[in-house]
């Protein structure tokens, strides 16, 4: 049994006033570094679709792809909690299928928890989350901008802008409260004004994890490729901590030059025939 960060560890850190950290990862080498870097949670996001598999948005990610990514991260993560992000329509069509798919993240891919996006007043999702938590599947909510509903919302718009006391913001707060009642252990709050982030955080007694939700939330999450400068985009809500695109491009160019100029392989990269007397 792995001794990774548990729901109760997350709660203890939250109650001690620690700000929680989460990053996405989609494969073992990156997850190894993210884990060693000390995050509390690794989200195997459905953002793998656009940040890892070359799609335009998160919708095409399949259950099999999500499970394969999660299993790779599970093999790499020693300390951080691994959260499997349930793909578009892998939940919601029926209770039975939703529970089975959530269970596959735990049983087949080694996830410690799952995450589901919830629309304002998303009754269906809230019912599913209620069932999952009753069955012992730690579940993270996700409200605000929910990319799986992008075609319905019309784009990655900032939720709650200019309408802090409006019905839309009240709906967000109520949805967060309903998620808390359904038993989520954390709530991701994506792309909302800082004031809305604060209102939701004050309204619930579960940690809120913000991405583009300002400073007054209980934790932060970023998409790994954006923060590493690895084919990601420079979004206002993100911060780039490295420029891996340049590093990788430079390394590839150096390799191509070395091979073309006969610098690689060098003598130290070559094998001699076995000398039976000395090598055996
Ligand atoms: O899939 C993802 O990367 C996410 C984060 C943006 C929270 O859901």
Automatic annotation (TrEMBL):
Active site: residue positions: 190 (proton acceptor)
Listed Acidic residues bias regions: 264-280
Enzyme class, UniProt record, top EC level: transferase
Entry's cofactor comment: Binds 1 Mg(2+) ion per subunit.
One annotated GO biological process: pantothenate biosynthetic process
Region of interest (Disordered), residue spans: 259-280
This protein's GO CC annotations: cytoplasm
Pathway connected to this protein: Cofactor biosynthesis; (R)-pantothenate biosynthesis; (R)-pantoate from 3-methyl-2-oxobutanoate: step 1/2; Cofactor biosynthesis; coenzyme A biosynthesis
Family: Belongs to the PanB family.
Name used for this protein in its record: 3-methyl-2-oxobutanoate hydroxymethyltransferase
